[in-house]
């Protein structure tokens, strides 16, 4: 066995060195690469070439190896199906299984890795230029505006801050590709300097979205009404009126009209509210300390009023302003508690843009696309330029870069496009968002536990006034929805950009799309599978593909393509197994007759030619098997895998019978 292993290993090592050296000196058809990446690209390219011809190398090694080792048995076999051939077959099968394992592993792991790595290296230069130019265009645009204009309105400043934020994200992506890129480092410094000037010299008014003021129901399910009343009474005894009013309000929300505790809850809430509105006397060593306590109390009161009215975003920034002064934050229990409550509510509607790079990605996918039918029979086409899946304490979340959604109505007519540079996706329990009828209408599996929730708007964690939101674009006008919404004359758009048969979209038509998030009527696990087939079906994990086939048509993919690809990949091992046995038969037919002969010098010339012939035959056989698989899928449908497996298993059995029938 040692001799059998040495021959293919030596042969493969020689070809590997030849492929790498050829790639190192072959400079034609090289893509534009970043400095320092040329050697890596050439090495991986040479490795990819080696993997491409590895099947021919190993299959040809089977013939050469056994033509050398079987010569001593040539005079012992006088009849077919002898015991000697049975022993030879066992030896051959072990060797063939090793070949099958190596080639299957190469096909499923190494080849997809090298293809993806080569693609990433080839795209790095263009991606770096794209991100750098995008950031520089934004910076140059606002530098010209700032140098040529006088006073700038608060809204213009806010827009400028948002654009600079996007520019910073572009620059950071440049630096992820090339950490030492001096142009990107210089541009990042300039952008940061401009942002510092904006933050120091310009005042930005608070801008809050209308939907942030929509008050959600208080979550009181973890306590009974009596427990809430008891908590309110306990806080009232401590003269902690903020908490007393908070718990009383929760109790009031939990009471219906017939609940006898409603009156008591109302009394506690009114009493706490009256105390909050009464003049408060503060003690202190000097006037400055008293004024500081008075200011803190008024700040807490404003933050609590905002929270109680459902304006969680405003409440968060009010309490966050106290949080930024660490001493007052840690000394005041009310600030800590209500900041935590407000932040929890805000995170249900928005995400903070500093989250995007704060976690290490466990998986990254690019250029994801799929379609999804909504419950109202309309359809959305999704495109995600870059998706990063991240594992944290709360589970699996994803950050979507370059999200584009094209919306069509139930008749297939284009409605609008939604674009945003950044979005966040989390898994939402399905029972929280869909009824049983809606789950059935969306054809979601009964085993589904979570659906994707996409948060479309992001905030600055510390600075008030920054809300980055998606842009709505209409095909006919090209204007964003905000421009269109603020226009006083709808007839302008109707007369010049639409026909009478295409009525103007109104806020009512797409109002639900203007919220902070959208929930996709699909299994969250299906989204993970969709992202895994983003490159192509050849590189998608086999287990994921097997799970995805039955649902692929729901997301705009052709089921037959995935089924054929799955059969090609699953039957590859059977094809190679049969092929290697046939090569073993050739090794027996061309074995050395002279026991004393160890090697033929002519083989040094013949082996490369034999390898070329084996490679051509291998490609032809694989092509014919793929055509056969295509026909099997067309005729047999969902039973195609069983039929194809039976055919190739029969081919293996026939090859073994032919081998056993050999004699000297």
Give an overview of the whole structure:
The chain is of the alpha+beta class. It has helices spanning 2-25, 38-69, 83-148, 154-177, 182-201, 225-237, 241-253, 262-277, 287-308, 312-323, 326-331, 333-347, 436-441, 481-486, 490-497, 507-510, 524-532, 542-548, 559-570, 572-589, 603-636, 640-660; strands at residues 351-352, 363-373, 379-392, 395-408, 414-429, 450-455, 458-459, 467-468, 471-473, 517-519. The strands form two sheets. Strands 2, 3, 4, 5, 6, 9 and 10 form a seven-stranded antiparallel sheet that branches. It has a three-stranded mixed sheet with strand order 1-7-8, with no helix packed on it. A hairpin with a 5-residue loop joins strand 2 (363-373) and strand 3. Helix 2 (38-69) crosses helix 20 (572-589) and helix 3 (83-148) crosses helix 5 (182-201).
Short description:
The chain is of the alpha+beta class.
* Cα separation of the termini: 22 Å
Rough outline = elongated
Helix content: 55-70%
The chain-level mean pLDDT equals 77
Give a count of the beta strands, DSSP E runs of length 2 or more: 10
Assembly annotation: single chain
Cα radius of gyration in angstroms: 35 Å
Q: Report the β-strand fraction as a percent range.
A: 5-15%
Low-confidence stretches: 148-152, 201-221, 487-513
The largest sheet, given as strand count, sense and whether it forms a barrel, is: 7 strands, antiparallel
Structural class designation: alpha+beta
* Total helical segments: 22
